[in-house]
Structures are given as C-alpha cells and as structure tokens.
TrEMBL record:
One of its GO terms (molecular function) is tRNA (guanosine(9)-N1)-methyltransferase activity. Residues 49-63, 347-374 have a biased composition (Basic and acidic residues). InterPro entries: MT_TRM10-typ, MT_TRM10-typ_sf, tRNA_m1G_MeTrfase_euk. Residues 10-26, 375-390 have a biased composition (Low complexity). Transmembrane segments: none annotated. It catalyses: guanosine(9) in tRNA + S-adenosyl-L-methionine = N(1)-methylguanosine(9) in tRNA + S-adenosyl-L-homocysteine + H(+). CDD domains: SPOUT_Trm10-like. It is an enzyme of class 2 (transferase). This is tRNA (guanine(9)-N(1))-methyltransferase. GO terms for cellular component: nucleus. Keywords: Methyltransferase, S-adenosyl-L-methionine, Transferase. Residues 1-63, 292-403 are annotated as: Disordered. It comes from Oryza meridionalis.
Length: 403
C-alpha cells in the first residue's frame, strides 16, 4: 500500500514537472487504472452489442429460409397463394390488436393526467452535475419509466421538470419523444407547482421520515441523478433548503440494504407503480429488485442483505431489449418475410401473364396503365381471391436515484 502511494506521488510530481515544461502531463496510476477499466467496459459492451446483432441477423435468416422452404414445398400455386394470404391475414390481425392496445394505453394515460393518476415528478435539474455517459444512462431510465407507465393498469401522472441543456438534447433524440403523453416542463418543479408547494414530497434515502403510504394529494419527486455516489445527500439538502417535505421508501422494513445501496430512477418509479396496484410494499420491492440480489428474502426470511451496486443500477435502463418490449417494438415474425411475400406476388403475376399470352389472351399494352413497382404497390397486389392486400410494412409506435 505504501509503495503504491509513493509511486502515485512520484507520478503526480512527474506530471507537475512535465506541465511546467509545457509537455502533456503524465497520467497518475489511479487515472490509468480507471481509463483501462473504462476501455475494458466499452470493449465488452461493444462485443455484447455485436453478438446480439449477429444473433438477430442469424435468427432472421433462419426464419427467412424456413419460409422459403415452406413455400417451395407447397403442392401447387394455389396452395402457395393461400399460404401468402394466411400470413398476411395473421399480420393484419396482429396490427389490429396492437392498435387496440395503443388506444387503451392512451386512454389510461389520459385519465391519469385528468386526475386519476398519482402525480410523480422526475427532477432533471442535476444535468450540470453529470458526465455525458451518466446523462445517457438517465435518459434510458426515463424511457423505461414512460414505457412501464404506459403498460400499467393504473399509470401515474408523470412529469419531467427542469428539462434543459444536455438533458433536453438527449431526450429529444428519443424516437417519438414529442408524442409522449407526459408533462414536460423546462422550469423547475417549484415553479411548476408554485400553488402546491405544501404537497411536494422529495423521495430521498437520506430522509428520516419513512413513507408508509402514497397520498393522492401529494406530489412525489424522484431525483434524476446518476452520480455513482459522488453527490451523496444532495437531494436531501435540496429539499431542506427549499423547505419541502422529504421521505424515504420503507425498503428497510422488508430488506436489509447494505451501505452501497443504489436505486435507479426507473426502479423507484416502478416500485411506486407496483404499490399503487397492490398496496403492498413487500410485493412491490420484490417485484422490482433483482431476485439474485434478494436471495432468500422472498421466502420470508428476515435480515437478508441486499446490495445494489452501480452495475445493478444500470441494468434495467441499459437493456435496450427490455425497453423495446415495453414499447411494443419487438421483432415481428412477419417482418422477415415481407420481401418474400412481395416476390411471391410478382412471380404469380408474371406466371399468370405468361398463361394469358400462351392462350392468345394478351392484353393491349397501349391501353394498359403503367405498373407501379414500388414496395408499397407490390404489397397491394390483388390476391387470387380478389381481395386487395394491405401494405406489408406497418408503422409502429416509437415508442441512480435515491429512494
């Protein structure tokens, strides 16, 4: 330990001397270790992303091949046409169900905004205290909050306040963000709720008051801060300085958390959503906290330690697959065969034209309208039964905090 300290001091002294001579300062030992760790994590993340992309590509190719083999095995052109139409009908039904789900979700969010939902504020005034990667992480967490809120049977009336600068820039990059059914305020929550200051309650793990229940008349604030514990106690200090109430979730009554406890914005928000649904804190905590971190606690044992570290804090928010699922953007089985469907339409049309020519029934080209070979037109080709097929590609909806 002493040797490491002396080595780092020597490096720091060398860095100071290099700076005096106008040379780039040498990196300290701790800085080098931190940089290597960041580079290693970035490489691992890139490798995971590439592996997932390759897996998806291989899956698409497999399903494409299976579809081609199934068509090739059809006993006749009529059978092939029936297969194509059946697949299109399945797609139409799926699109219809999703449209109904989106409508129901919009209605739930509308009712929540009109007073049926618990008001929850995400305080985004800490943008200047976060690094770019932390702002990115918080953006992912906000996406998750909005998505799970839409899926909830009892959604909250969700607010974003103090949304300015880099934080606002990151949010604007989210596809469909402008259409989110959510309150967006550039001004801080004190101004947004200046007539309801007495109802503001800041949720912070450093508070002494334990939250026993959720009060519909209250406006609960979650600090939008990913800081890796650099700014410990900042949300409590902010609430005290502003003269507003503060409280903490009763997680300690059900799980013994270690001093390294970290709950993300989306974890706190989802716990609150689950409590609104169940009115049971234990169920809410166990629903959100990863099972591997609560171990035997689910069986009812007391005194089980649950340690939430930085990796756990980022887990849900960084998982693009989970976010895609809650936004109903998962890969559609029929997406991978759109081109094949269009090719089948074209092949069948050509073969029918050849038969007409062989039978002496060729059309007068001068009187026939020009063909439209665009993808949309191919998808609108008339089926053997005379029904027009809809366009194959359908638009889809884009779609660390203290506790």
């Amino acid at each position: 330990m002493a040797d490491d300290a002396e080595s780092e001091q020597a490096t720091d002294a060398a860095a100071a001397g290099a700076a005096d001579e106008g040379q780039p300062p040498a990196m300290s030992k701790s800085a080098r270790k931190k940089l290597l760790k960041q580079e290693r994590q970035a490489a691992q993340k890139a490798a995971r992303k590439a592996a997932e992309k390759e897996r998806r590509r291989a899956d698409i190719e497999r399903r494409r091949r299976e579809w081609e083999e199934a068509l090739a095995a059809a006993p006749s052109e009529e059978a092939r046409a029936e297969m194509v139409e059946a697949r299109r009908q399945t797609r139409r039904e799926r699109v219809g169900r999703r449209a109904e789900e989106r409508g129901a979700r919009a209605e739930r969010l509308r009712r929540a905004a009109e007073g049926a939902g618990q008001k929850v504020v995400l305080d985004l005034e800490f943008g200047d205290l976060m690094r770019p990667n932390e702002i990115h992480s918080l953006t992912q967490q906000i996406m998750y909050c909005y998505a799970v809120n839409g899926r909830s049977a009892n959604p909250a009336h969700l607010w974003l306040t103090g949304c300015n600068g880099e934080m606002a820039t990151h949010l604007q990059r989210i596809p469909g963000y402008d259409k989110w059914m959510i309150e967006k305020e550039a001004k801080p929550y004190l101004e947004a709720f200046e007539d309801s200051k007495e109802n503001l309650v800041y949720l912070t793990a450093d508070a002494e008051t334990v939250l026993d229940d959720l009060d519909m008349s209250k406006i609960y604030i979650i600090g939008g801060l990913v800081d890796r514990n650099r700014w410990k106690g900042i949300t409590l200090k902010k609430a005290v300085d502003q003269g507003i109430q503060c409280a903490k979730l009763p997680i300690g009554n059900y799980l013994k958390m270690s001093s390294s406890q970290v709950l993300t914005v989306n974890q706190v928000f989802e716990i609150m959503l689950k409590f609104v649904e169940t009115r049971d804190w234990k169920t809410s905590f166990f629903h959100v906290i990863p099972q591997r971190k609560r171990g035997e606690a689910e069986a009812g044992n007391d005194g089980v330690d649950v340690s939430m570290n930085d990796d756990d804090a980022a887990e849900g928010a960084e998982n693009q697959g989970d976010i895609a699922k809650v936004f109903d953007e998962e890969v559609d089985d029929d997406d991978v065969v759109d081109e094949e469907l269009q090719e089948e339409d074209t092949d069948m049309a050509k073969k029918k034209q050849c038969i007409r020519h062989e039978n002496g029934e060729a059309e007068d080209v001068s009187t026939r309208p020009a063909e439209d070979h665009s993808p949309g037109a191919a998808a609108e080709t008339t089926t053997p039964t005379g029904g027009a097929l809809p366009q194959a590609e359908q638009s889809k909806e884009s779609n660390g905090a203290d506790d």
